[in-house]
Structure formats: structure tokens, C-alpha cells
Amino acid sequence: MSPTTTKPARARTAYRCAECGWTTPKWVGRCGECQAWGTVEETTAGQPASRAPASLAPSSPARPIHEVDVDAARARSTGVSELDRVLGGGIVPGAVVLLAGEPGVGKSTLLLDVAARAAEVSAGAPAGGAGAGRPVLYVTGEESASQVRLRAERIGALTPNLLLAAETDLATLLGHVDAAEPSLLVVDSVQTIADGSIDGSAGGVSQVRAVASALINVAKTRDIPVLLVGHVTKDGSIAGPRVLEHLVDVVCQFEGDRHSRLRMVRAVKNRYGPTDEVGCFDLGDAGITGLADPSGLFLSGARQAVPGTCVTVSLEGRRPMPTEIQALVAPSTLSSPRRTTSGVDSSRVAMTLAVLQSRLGANIAASDVYVSTVGGARAVEPAVDLAVALALISAATQRPLDPTMIAVGEVGLTGDVRTTVGVQRRLAEAARLGFSRALVPAQGSGDLQRVPGMTVRPVENLHEAVELSGVAGT
């Protein structure tokens, strides 16, 4: 009998999610693991493993780490001090920065201002310096060149060393880079650029991955810093594949309320600096400007005693932000009284109300309660609980608090006042603005350094804080 012959195993087709790696034998439009749409791609399973690649001689030998030159990786200022603060002192040559934010928040305006300032610095740099004489290239895929020019005229960003191109094709964009040899490249936005060799429309998973990889390769091989604008989804996360955030060096989130002029930039990921810094900007008709001292934006400016107001100091990254909490307690005609909040965490306000009723006997269960911040500030950290509680007690008793007093601390369900981080920085900022009294948690207060002009009163629980604030008698 002739020996039996075995047929080679056929390659089995499977489908894999490009986001999380989940596999399925059939194609589906939505990943069953991470619930992302359009990320499941065809792959081949069961094929024999490929041979290991042959080794190649390196172009340059490996060197001891202390002999590697670090001057080329020094951060250089963008010309916008608040953005430099977030990036860790400036932008590093060859770094790729992704700036994401909601539509209309001011991403394009900010980067156009950065591009104009960088172009002026490059034009005035001494011969032989880094980027001397090299232009800045701004590529827009969302607007025409004339539309961008109108914005540049409005914000004062017209400079001869700033080159502008309206392109949506990746190959043409790379051609502009070859021709201009810029010192800085701005792409607005990465979701509007398409690679003709990749199937799918611009903004798709494969397209965004290919475009980002090509731009990162340009940045690393030519030491050109690249600023990318990214879109966000309805829940605020960055649109496109998650791998985009892993590929870039810095991910910044641009935040702001449409009804407020204040804009904040915070770093979500930063390979060259901290991620706990926040940059503040004022978006107006004449463009966007940095706010080195935004403290006054969140205070009403009134120093007279008004019931229902209490000032606290929240932390945005490392930056202390004095914020005024306002509360109103009014009789209700409804079977279920209203609980309305703005700028504060509604769940923490509900817990604070429960603590006031249970531990202090405050009779506000049948009243409408409104709690808000001044100036559109967001004070959602637990450290503002004490200020919220005192503002509510003040509003309920119609007894005003001392306008020169601040309150910082987290309120527990037992009525105790818990410690929080950065108390020393909060006190220093409050003293700088003229506040002279502070209620702080007793735990850890012994380690606080004396702040000139500030009287600090440690409190153990909410009852003690109400007694010291002068609104007792609920």
C-alpha cells in the first residue's frame, strides 16, 4: 500500500479587533469586548510561523547611555507660556503632540497662534541656531486656506514665515514637508487626512493609523516637532483607534464651556514632562491669550457678607483655583423638592445634604436646594465638600459667613472632616488674594507651615466647623 499523504492545513480566516485584540470567526461591525465600531479586521490564523528575520549590521553602534547627546532633545519654547507649562517647558524636536477637544472649543485658534509665534521666533533666530530661517508649515484639512487666513488676520497671526496649505491627501502633505523643510508642522486635523494606498475613508481606523504612523516617521527622522489636532467622540474620548494615543508622545485635552471664555489645556500623557499641570486661556474675539493668574475669574468680587456663599480653593493639577460656592435654600411647593447643581458634583452635594440633616439636624429636607459655582468653574474634587456644607448652612439660616474666610476639606458620612492634598498650596494662594482665615482638616494640620497673614483653624468634624464659622443655630 502506498503511504498516505497528508494535505497541508488550510489557512483559517479569523477576524481581530484592532483596538483590544478580541478575535471572532465571523466578521462583526462592533467588537464584542471593547464595544468599538468598525475596528474588526480580517486576519489569517493557523498559518505556520514565519522564519525569524536575518540580522543586519546596525548603522551606528550602541553607546553607553552617559555618552548620548541630550542637547538635541531639549525642550524649546512654543512662545505660549501656558502651553509650555503643560508640555513641561516647551516642545521637544521630533515630538508628536496630539491636541484633542470638542468642536468650537478653540483648538485651531490656539495652534494657529502657536504656529505664528514659532514662525516669528524662527525668522529672528541667529544664523546657525536651531530652526533658524526655516518656516512653519500649517496644513488644514477642514477649512480652505482663505478661511484660515481670515482667522489669522483676526488674531494677529499674519507672519511671512508661516506657510499655509489646504490638503487632505497624505502624499501631497509629505510633498509640502519635503519642499518647505519646516521647523514646525501643524496638521488640522489628523482625521481629515487620507492615505490613497489604504482602503477606507478619512477618519477610519486604518486611515488614522496609517496617517499617524507616516507623520510620526517624518517627525522622528527629521527632528520636526508635529502638532496634531484630534476630534473627540460624544463621551469626550479621542476619536479613532486607541493606538493613536500610544503612538504619539504627548496627548493634551482642550476643555472649556461654550458659555464661558475660560479654556483649559491639560496633559493626559507626556513622555517629556509632568501630567499634572494645567494651562489656562481666555478665548475672546481677538483670539486666545494665556492666563498666568486666572484666580479672579471664579470669584464674584463682592466682599460684603452675603448668606449662602463660601470660598474654597480647588486644585487643577498643581494650580490652585480659588472658587466661590453659592447655595440657595428656598421653600418648596413640590412633593419632591428640587436639587439643582452647576459646576459641582451632584452626588457629593446629595451626600453632604444627607450628612447635614442626619448629623446636624438641619431642616432642609422639604426645601429646594440650588448649589452653583461662580464663573463657570468646575469644582468636583472632594476637598470642596466643607465649603458646600457651610454655604448650605449659611443659606438655610440666612447667616452670612466671614467674606475673608475659606474652607477646605472632605466631609465624610459620619460628619468628620478628612484631610486632602495640597493644603499648603491652597492656603498660600488664598493669602495672596487677601483671605485671612481658613478652616482646614485637623488631620495633618500640624505639618503645615505658617502662612503670613493667614489664621488657620483646624476642625475635626462638621459640627466644629459650623461653630467656628459663626453660622451655628440650625
Report on this structure.
- The chain is of the alpha/beta class and 474 residues long.
- It has 3 domains: 13-45; 73-292, P-loop containing nucleotide triphosphate hydrolases (Rossmann fold, 3-Layer(aba) Sandwich); 297-469, Ribosomal Protein S5, domain 2 (2-Layer Sandwich).
- Helices cover 24% and strands 24% of the residues.
- The chain is built from 10 helices and 21 strands.
- Strands 6-5-7-8-4-9-10-11-12 form a 9-stranded mixed sheet, with helices on both faces.
- Helix 8 (385-397) crosses helix 10 (462-469).
- It is globular.
- It starts with 11 loop residues before the first strand and ends in a 5-residue tail after the last helix.
Number of beta strands: 21
Whole-number radius of gyration?
28 Å
Chain oligomer state: single chain
* Largest β-sheet summary: 9 strands, mixed
Number of domains: 3
Q: Mind telling me the CATH class of the largest domain?
A: Alpha Beta
* Uncertain stretches of 5 or more adjacent residues: none
**Which fold name corresponds to the CATH topology of the largest domain?**
Rossmann fold
Category by helix and strand content? alpha/beta
The shape, in one word, is globular
Tell me the strand order in the biggest sheet: 6-5-7-8-4-9-10-11-12
Mean pLDDT: 87
Protein name: DNA repair protein RadA
Region (Lon-protease-like): 368-474
Region (Disordered): 44-64
Domain RecA family profile: 72-232
